[in-house]
From TrEMBL:
Residues 417-607 form the Putative glutamine amidotransferase domain. Keywords: Membrane, Transmembrane, Transmembrane helix. The lineage of its organism: Bacteria, Pseudomonadati, Planctomycetota, Planctomycetia, Pirellulales. InterPro entries: Class_I_gatase-like (IPR029062), GATase1-like (IPR010768). The chain crosses the membrane at residues 20-41, 48-70. PANTHER family: BLL2462 PROTEIN. It comes from Blastopirellula retiformator. This is Putative glutamine amidotransferase domain-containing protein. It holds the Pfam family GATase1_like. Signal peptide: none annotated.
Length: 792
């Protein structure tokens, strides 16, 4: 009777026939009664519908009673009480502290009421399963019950917690995981998981899509270039809910908290992201921190008084951005075959740039052939004839070129002329050769220049002139090999004497080539430029080379002017013009600095990606629920090969202005790689000063990095529950999403699901009071219908 009352009769069919020996007798008896019923009603005098209805009622009753002889049974598998495990996991992150729109209680308060151990669904779940209870924020933690539940965690390690539960019970009968969460995990970077290998996950979504009013700074990204003092663009991505039609103020603050810029957004739409861009020009070097914060217009004071705010939370109203202003100053070596105007304007353009140090070797006299007649009293170069320096030992000899050293050089630096060793040349980040023939260099120096680009990763630029490129016999030299143009099969010199310039399509895409804001302004710039007269002829462009500037000829063809390419670890460029200086001399106004800006940007391009001897990278990792920062340091020797015997120290400055020192250890047996980890415990900005030392204790290089810990910003990145993610893991794991108000109904369905450990349960389907009453009801119905219609 209880089975029938429970509804099993109506949808469960027998799958076991206990007394198969009665199948034939039951069929015979049923058939005889069926024939008798058909004979009896065929002879009766009554309407056809009445006879058919009565016959069907009596036939159904007879067949139902005849089936009892076969003993039909229902065999089922039921969970063994207490043999299977079931995990109940609760999110205790602070994102549950918000209240949804129109609600007087927070999500956490609602959840805690449902997590009460005396709740009906927990009692029923405990009757069938061995419940294992857990809470998680930045990591998973077992609990006996949820009496002390408090949503105060700074992170939501949802992915890590679910995978941890699956791993803990990998070899045990875990029937499923019931997880209470809003789905806004802070460890989505670890979400590349095969959820089909997980036990069934049943997410209970906490929270509504109708969130309370809130302004959130989702993220702040920074982009910077190496050009024109490296202006920085900060892009803030924001979302406003409940502020449609209202104005939102967005501020940019520096690392001292001083307001730099303010913008007001008036076209806010609920649930739609919008962005605000700031452009700043930092005056400091190193790692800098900027803060973007947003609030309703006129509500700035609420940031210091959360109780007076109408927003759901103020913890997501600000975000930091980290800017690395590079590791300058960069050193550039300029070598020229003769004094010229080009160096004057190059030096002038870099005079006010603290990021670039320009050293120069300018040849003021060539070396003389050994057979040249010379004075008997002196072996000095003829430029010193009749001078007091002629008898000095340090002056250049007759077979040596006389070089003028220019720049902030230390005593003895470059005193021997162009560097002859990697130790000396590799101190520079870029090398510029101007109007200088190949024979100026020894064979070893030519190979050294190629190694400077390919192994050290330096920037190289050759300028045009009477003794550059093919005219300087660089063909079949290591220097010629790194140039982006072939010096064989040189094109014949054009007949016209003057040239204009134009950008190629590739040149328009390179920011360091552009000097003005728009394409039209660039075209105007080239139209205003004077006609140039010195253009070296070269062969074809090498594979992989890019032509950025060209000179249009009168016959409709073009000649390459500026060509670049990657070469090994570095980059090489060929500026085929030899009189770019005319650009400045023919300008009508003195305040036009197009040439200076072009030179600065070109130099920035040359040194922009040149590796340092020490390189540092700070990356946030996830390890056992924590979010440590892994500081990886790469150290090279003087030849820029991995250096294994370095000592690396890391000095970290915390937001509380405390300082601690870490020692980096060799990383993963990778040559020249060192690493250390640090777990930030306090929100805010962190700096790390990394210093690498030689084994003898001398310093190799000091470099700085930084990062920001913003657990609240990540936790409150969005207030809407992440339904898509929860539905995805439920579907792939074989579970389903459960509503918070339907927990009782969900638990009642668990015994009928696939469970690891079950026991068979067989019960009679037909020998029940329900079946007996149905048979009697059919017979009584047939009798009553006959009596009502007067059918004998």
């Amino acid at each position: 009777m209880s089975d029938w009352l429970g509804g099993q009769f109506w949808f469960e069919w027998p799958n076991v026939w206990a007394d198969r020996g009665w199948i034939v007798p039951a069929c015979v008896i049923g058939g005889l009664f069926l024939l008798l019923i058909l004979w009896a009603y065929s002879a009766a005098k009554a309407p056809f519908w009445l006879k058919a209805t009565c016959a069907l009622l009596k036939t159904a009753a007879v067949l139902l009673l005849a089936a009892i002889l076969v003993e039909p049974m229902r065999s089922e598998s039921k969970p063994v009480p207490g043999a299977n495990l079931f995990a109940v996991v609760a999110d205790r992150s602070q994102s549950l502290q918000v209240a949804d729109r129109g609600e007087s209680t927070t999500r956490a308060e609602k959840l805690k009421a449902e997590l009460d151990r005396s709740a009906p669904w927990q009692i029923r779940l405990g009757q069938e399963f061995d419940i294992r209870r857990y809470e998680f924020d930045r990591q998973l933690a077992p609990v006996a019950d949820f009496d002390q539940f408090a949503a105060d965690g700074e992170e939501s390690a949802l992915v890590t917690s679910l995978t941890s539960v699956a791993q803990r019970y990998e070899d045990r009968p875990l029937a499923g995981v019931l997880v209470f969460t809003d789905g806004n995990a802070t460890d989505f970077s670890d979400a590349n998981i095969d959820w089909s290998q997980s036990p069934p996950i049943f997410p209970v979504i906490v929270g509504s899509d109708r969130t309370a009013a809130d302004i959130g700074v989702r993220r702040v990204t920074a982009s910077q270039t190496n050009f024109e003092a490296a202006p920085v663009t900060l892009t803030a991505e924001l979302e406003g809910t409940g502020f449609a039609g209202q104005a939102i103020t967005v501020q940019l603050l520096d690392q001292q908290g001083e307001e730099l810029q303010t913008q007001t957004v008036t076209d806010v739409r609920d649930g739609q992201l919008f962005s605000v861009r700031f452009q700043v020009k930092p005056t400091e070097r190193g790692v800098l921190f900027y803060q973007v914060r947003a609030f309703a217009k006129g509500a700035e004071k609420t940031l210091d008084d959360p109780a007076s705010s109408s927003e759901a939370t103020l913890l997501n109203n600000q975000r930091f951005a980290v800017i690395d202003r590079g590791q300058g100053p960069y050193k550039v070596l300029y070598v020229s075959g003769r004094p010229n105007w080009e160096f004057k304007f190059l030096q002038r353009s870099l005079a006010g740039d603290d990021e670039v140090e320009l050293d120069a070797l300018v040849r003021i006299a060539k070396r003389e052939p050994k057979f040249q007649f010379r004075d008997k009293d002196s072996n000095a170069n003829r430029i010193f004839t009749n001078s007091d320096d002629a008898q000095k030992e340090q002056v250049e000899q007759y077979d040596e070129a006389v070089l003028l050293r220019i720049g902030k050089l230390e005593p003895g630096e470059l005193s021997g002329g162009f560097p002859k060793s990697a130790d000396e040349l590799f101190e520079y980040h870029a090398l510029i050769l101007d109007d200088l023939e190949a024979d100026f260099f020894t064979q070893d120096q030519k190979s050294l220049i190629q190694d400077f680009v390919s192994l050290r990763g330096g920037g190289f630029l050759m300028l045009g002139g009477m003794e550059s490129f093919a005219e300087g016999d660089f063909h079949r030299t290591p220097i010629g090999e790194l140039l982006p143009v072939y010096l064989s099969s040189v094109q014949p010199a054009p007949q016209q004497e003057e040239f204009g310039l134009q950008m190629t399509r590739e040149g328009l895409l390179e920011p360091w080539i552009r000097v003005r804001a728009t394409e039209q302004e660039e075209q105007d710039r080239f139209a205003e430029m004077p006609r140039l007269r010195s253009l070296n002829s070269v062969g074809a462009l090498k594979p992989g080379a890019t032509q950025l500037l060209a000179a249009p000829l009168d016959d409709g063809q073009t000649r390459p002017v500026l060509v670049t390419q990657r070469f090994g670890k570095g980059r090489a460029g060929a500026m085929l013009l030899g009189d770019l200086w005319r650009w400045k001399l023919h300008q009508q106004t003195t305040d036009n600095e197009d040439l200076e800006k072009a030179w600065r940007q070109t130099i920035r391009w040359l040194v922009g990606d040149v590796p340092q001897r020490v390189k540092v990278e700070a990356v946030r990792k996830r390890q056992n629920g924590a979010r440590p920062i892994e500081i990886t340091v790469a150290v090279n020797d003087e030849n820029f090969k991995p250096f294994d015997n370095a000592d690396v120290t890391i000095e970290i400055s915390t937001p509380e202005e405390e300082t601690l020192t870490l020692t980096a250890q060799p990383k993963d047996a990778v040559s020249g790689q060192y690493a250390s980890t640090y777990v930030p415990r306090t929100p805010g900005a962190y700096r790390a000063q990394v210093t690498a030392y030689n084994p003898d204790g001398s310093e190799i290089q000091q470099i700085e990095t930084g990062w920001v810990a913003e657990p609240a910003g990540e936790e409150f990145a969005t207030l809407k529950p992440n339904r898509d993610f929860l539905e995805m893991i439920a579907a792939k794991s074989g579970g389903e999403v459960v509503s918070l108000d339907r927990l009782d109904a969900f638990v009642s369905t668990l015994p009928g699901r696939e469970i690891p450990i079950v026991e068979p349960k067989i019960h009679s389907v037909w020998h029940t009071w329900g079946v007996f009453l149905l048979a009697v009801g059919l017979l009584v119905g047939e009798w009553g219908l006959r009596r009502w219609k007067g059918l004998a």
